Amino acid sequence: MSTDTSLPPLTPDEQAHSERLVHRIRDAIDAHHGWISFERFMEMALYEPGLGYYSAGSTKLGGAGDFVTAPEISSLFSRCLAAQCVEVLQRLGGGDVLELGAGSGVMAADILAELANQQCLPERYLILEVSADLRERQQKTLSARVPDLLPRVQWLDQWPVGLRGVIVANEVLDALPVQRFRIRGTQVNAVGVTWQLGQLDWSEVHADPTLELAVRAIERANGEPFPDGYLSEVNVRLVPWIAGLANALAEGVALFIDYGLPQREYYRSERREGTLLCHFRHRFHDHPLINVGVQDIGAWVDFTAVASAAHDAGMRVAGFATQAHFLIGCGIESFMATIAEQPVTERVQLARQVMVLTLPGEMGERFKVIGLAAKYDHPLRGFGVRDLSGSL
């Protein structure tokens, strides 16, 4: 297992925390005959109660954390999402907004503030959050920023039933645990985690039928087999996860924003080392077996798989676009026009934020937005500038 020496060292508390989680992962490895799938490792690294990255108390978002998300960069991002929510809620004659994995609570606060400004508040603003630590932070953020709207907010532990309205999820799909696979000749191997020489290390076994079927399906869809040695990821849990979402959404739209690609681009032969991406103190690397429990782990999203799972669950792809095109469609330029009377320094700062959100070299093209509709046949303004659904 290699390490990235450019990463900052762990603090003593971080080191102790990581060692506790590694010990628990080692117990899981021992209990499963010396090997666990990467999917299981990623699940424990991120969500193990009390120890996983999203379950423990470290600062994750913002300048003091490990990465910055679009809502943290600028409130304009959330205001654009709110504009799309307004369109759907007005078409439905009211409804709820459900946010999945609300992070620090900044996006929820900014969406609620803009919906109030547009006189289109949802009946409820629901937050499905698995992390007790993050839930507490969200409550503090909302109490500080929109205290008068806090009574509309409810936290959930599971999917709601019969939801009418909008589901929003920013950087959620990338954190769903994935399987890793490697091609050895004509064989599909599962890449998992073992314990060797006093540390976590990679190990391969022959893929089980579920993983092999998933890999072969991608090969058939792309019209060619993967080359020998090819390493990548596939989310075998996506179909049941999207089915759960479809069962929750009786009528309305779900919007997912994340970094990723259509399947044909995702699994290009030259992208032969996969897409895993770890975040630690604003440094990116591809070593998930280090800093366990104190760094984020994600994988790029296969948006074709998302679209296919939605179709199987009875939903319709309502649009697919780059983040830049979606924000433009939702009126980011008009929001910018409203700040003309503000001081020059604030206008410059906002202009820089918009550049980060929309430029191709920043987040504008790397991040995509997909809309999934349930019993909702109207066009969505966010996909009005350019809809790339045909690429899926």
UniProtKB/TrEMBL annotation:
Keywords: Methyltransferase, Transferase. One of its GO terms (molecular function) is protein-arginine omega-N symmetric methyltransferase activity. It holds the Pfam family Methyltransf_28. The keyword DNA repair does not apply. It comes from the Bacteria. GO terms for biological process: methylation. This is SAM-dependent MidA family methyltransferase. The lineage of its organism: Bacteria, Pseudomonadati, Pseudomonadota, Gammaproteobacteria, Steroidobacterales.
